[in-house]
Amino acid sequence: MSLSRETSVRLDENKQNLFSSDLSVSEFLLLEELGYEPIGLAMGTSVYHLGFQAARWRESLELTVLTQAMYNARHLAMNRMIEEARYLGADGIVGMRLDIGGQHLGLESSLSEFIAVGTAVRTPKAERRAGGQPFTSDLSGQDLYKLHRAGYRPVSLVMGTCVYHVAHQGLLQSLRTLAQNTEMVNYTQGLYQARELAMGRMQEEALRAGATGIVGVTVSESSRNWDNHVFEFLAVGTGVRKVAEPSPALQTSLTLSLND
């Protein structure tokens, strides 16, 4: 999907020394100290139709059709954001966020808008990778500053997702647990497995990207407009790799940034 005329006009203005950014003042100043130059706000969006997948009432299992749809929609939005960053000549995107909206726009319930937003930056010349894809990171400016001073660099935002159907109780099970305090084992096992699938996929993405670790991991759960026994588990973090020894001024810098 090529850039629209309106997008090209906005990005061209950013190229002419009028940058836009969603960084706070503190984040902007810390990144500037590292030699990062904000050059524009990069955005990507995808309005996606989420289909239907039937599940058995008494069976806990992954709904792979919906899992793939959620994964594809987010990557379409992310790739368009990265394309805008490339147009600006960026080396990376910081402060990224992934959102899902659309209902406020009056879209029908089967449609969702997937949005990726972040600030495109140029890095110091010594850190640039010739011909490489811009790195992506959802870390705050403060966290990126500390990471940089410790000798680590962001590689890529990595994620894993799993849409999962948790089995309903049978009638006998419902009667046995009525008015009792007891663990609902089928629910526990189903939710545990869904989270593990999402986490495992996030780790696989990190390995493929060449990261040696993942920081800032969050695992969220939502039910969207599906059945109340269907949930999406999303694991997101920033893959990182160590490239240098910690800065001698690390302790002082960390103290300053922690008090910011």
UniProtKB/TrEMBL annotation:
Family recorded in the similarity comment: Belongs to the UPF0145 family.
The protein's name in its UniProt record: Heavy metal-binding domain-containing protein
Residue spans crossing the bilayer: none
Taxonomy, superkingdom: Bacteria
PANTHER family linked: UPF0145 PROTEIN SCO3412, UPF0145 PROTEIN YBJQ
Pfam families: YbjQ_1
InterPro entries: UPF0145_dom_sf, UPF0145_YbjQ-like
Organism from which the protein derives: Deinococcus ruber
